[in-house]
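Researcher: Here's my situation. A collaborator sent me these components and asked whether they could plausibly form a single complex. I don't have experimental data yet, so a predicted model of the whole assembly would be a useful starting point for our discussion.
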Amino acid sequence: MSEIRFTSEHEWVRVENGVGTVGVSDYAQSQLGDVVFVELPAVGSSLNKGAEAAVVESVKAASEIYAPLSGEVVAINDDLVAQPGTVNEDPMEKGWFFKLRLTDPGELATLMDQAGYDEYVKGLA
Amino acid sequence: MDQIEKRTPLFDLHVGLGARMVPFAGYSMPVQYPAGILAEHQHTRARASLFDVSHMGQVALRGDGAAAALERLVPGDVAGLAAGRVRYTLFTNDAGGILDDLMVTNGGDRLFLVVNAARKEHDLTYLRSRLDPRVVVEELADRALLALQGPGAAEALSGLSPEVAAMPFMSARLLEVAGIGCVVTRSGYTGEDGYEISVPAVRAEELARRLLARPGVAPAGLGARDSLRLEAGLCLYGSDIDETTTPVEAGLGWTIGKRRRAEGGFPGADIILRQLKEGPARLRVGLRPDDRAPARAHTQVTDRDGQPIGEVTSGGFGPTVNGPVAMGYVLSPYAAVGTPVRLLVRGTPREGHVAALPFVPHRYATSKGN
């Protein structure tokens, strides 16, 4: 069974069998605008929760993507390098950035669930 | 305390069109509409886009000797500007730096200036303190400014004002557009054919709606305006040119005509004319990263040995180029097109090279007005 959680920086992480898949929310992609470049972490690198993990660039500006949880990068979405617009088109599925083997699954409890995140985004409008 | 942004006469129209409004130079301006920056950029290159540039300063100079007086502040040939013609020039300072860039139109009995939004107050104070007191400086605060840009602009605007089709590039006319008295210039900031239309503020929304109703016309925001001008190699004041850059370093020596070069008589003339003769120590150039990573403003430029040679002043993604494009200053020995460089993007040196400007060829109207 998978659980999805969100950060206040608008990353999502979906956890299955100790591996978290990370992306940015639909709200984040709409705020970024057209994504034209994605820089992904190296497979095998270790990231602490909150560390800079990736960079996403729109026509306008560059933004950092932070690791929502601590872990080791076990996979990256190479398709984004060739098709960065996937982040806009399908942020919650095909637009995932990287997968982390979690080192401290207990951290998951610090993140917002779907209802909490929806409420959080509503407060930003 | 929050700063209250000023609104242009088209604010309600922008909001109604679903624009994302952002603060820019003291104004609340549309950075993009729902189509997005990429689509708005492509649309401008393919058809025609309507931009609200009412935040820019519109100024009239009246009185005998206005042209001669203005020439004391700019290196451009204003006295030789024929009635109905438009010219790009610069306010320079005594160090040869650039205080602002502007468009000057000879309106017959007056000169019309269009200056940058962020420099409007500065320029008005400067003009009033430095021009001969017999020249009256009037801010045209009751006028909006619309830009219609793209290969379809002439056809779209002709439907509301047939005379515009025959206007040469960098010319101006007083015309009725959709029955509204406007000052129309054939000029722009995208590298495409197009017009800038100065319209009374009270009728700006009406005119904008008429323009948007023309086939092929869509709204575009400041985001697309920036990527279009970057691909066209056009300078943004405050980024690519400022008080620390000279016209010669910026590659804008072409704005200084033969007579002004011979006579001087503008601020910083000694430095600027010497640089024209001897060449400047650094030059504004185009820069192309060899990979896909955009190099933004303030990215350090080094040679292939890692020695610093300059800095990016504008950079991003060029939708028409379909890749990253940038411009910046490098030491003159490195300014030749094709020179290999490195761009320090987030601490990582990335390969790139000096590239010819513009990145996308200009497609201005020919002298016969197409």
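Model: Some features of this prediction you could bring to your collaborator: Chain A has four helices and nine strands. The beta strands of chain A are 3-6, 11-16, 19-24, 35-39, 46-47, 52-58, 62-66, 71-76, 98-102.
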